[in-house]
């Protein structure tokens, strides 16, 4: 009945995504908004541009499998912004996999993604569904940044990728209450279960078959790195990037799903720039210590205290703050032939909100309108392996800067 259904449309990012779609929807595209409360959905629809006035409303709840089945069967693509996904996400992904319906979300939760892979991958392969997790700031810039880097190297017949580093060169944006809630949920789980804690820590925790992965020794996802060790001209020490422990696993899954097209010696990490002054080693070390303290604090602090001081799910920055946000991610690699390549993914707008609504919306639109350009794949996939160049081109048309070149 519908090209796209936005599930969780009454939440902060859900509303932003619906608003983006209302402003950029190709003619003839049908959309419905879905959530637990029809009255809240009606209020959301009234807040959207006039083009959304006739959009349908669907009542669905993560605790009601029948409602999720009806939702999945009514759509070509389902967008889900309902998290934490570990609590609420699996029933909908399974409903979409069984219905042969494409699905995109925003998760940055490694344990949920692993559970979805184990539960849904073979089902979706049989039905032809593309279940595509992490179609926002987690993890499109990382996944597409390596995707275009690999494409440039392959075009030049310059070998395979080896040591590859993403540097968050600049970023400005708020912290999502939903992201914090997802992190808290995962920390609570791993605190109680040692096996899940070890799974979450593995660098190949999202790979299809670890036994087939190359043995590259220890790969540190949270690292302090001297810019000189990344590429010539990269100055200053780099701090750990808070999202590296998830993004790196998504990129490694892309390599595995492509039969290690990036290379059997492909090592990948993500870091964050803290400037290039003489103080950069101390600043980078301080950031690393601060991230560690944050995780420890969220693990041991009383729940009631965290509820008072941390952003709540559904909270988000003002429209002005969203407009002033931005991010630039630069990726550097050396190939097996010794060639050096550089790619960039850059966008304006708060990374976790405004820019994410663009990435999520364009992912869904690509699955609807660019079918002939999509990779021949089905299952629980990544943005690069499910949508690839079609998404790159749509994001560039939407104002993103995405390129790769030989240095």
Task: Write structural notes for this entry.
This protein has 407 residues and is an alpha/beta fold. It contains 16 helices and 14 strands. The strands form two sheets. It has a seven-stranded parallel β-sheet with strand order 3-2-1-4-5-6-13, sandwiched between helices. A seven-stranded mixed β-sheet has the order 8-9-10-7-11-12-14. Helix 5 runs parallel beside helix 6. The relative contact order is 0.16. The mean pLDDT is 91.
Oligomer: single chain
Mean of residue pLDDT values: 91
Strand arrangement, largest sheet?
Answer: 3-2-1-4-5-6-13
Task: State the shape.
Answer: globular
Helix-strand sequence: EHEHEHEHHEHEHEHHEEHEHHHEEHEHHE
Radius of gyration: 20 Å
Residue share in helices? 40-55%
What is the tally of helical segments?
Answer: 16
Would you summarize the structure shown here?
The protein is α/β, with parallel strands linked by helices. Helices cover 44% and strands 20% of the residues. It contains 16 helices and 14 strands.
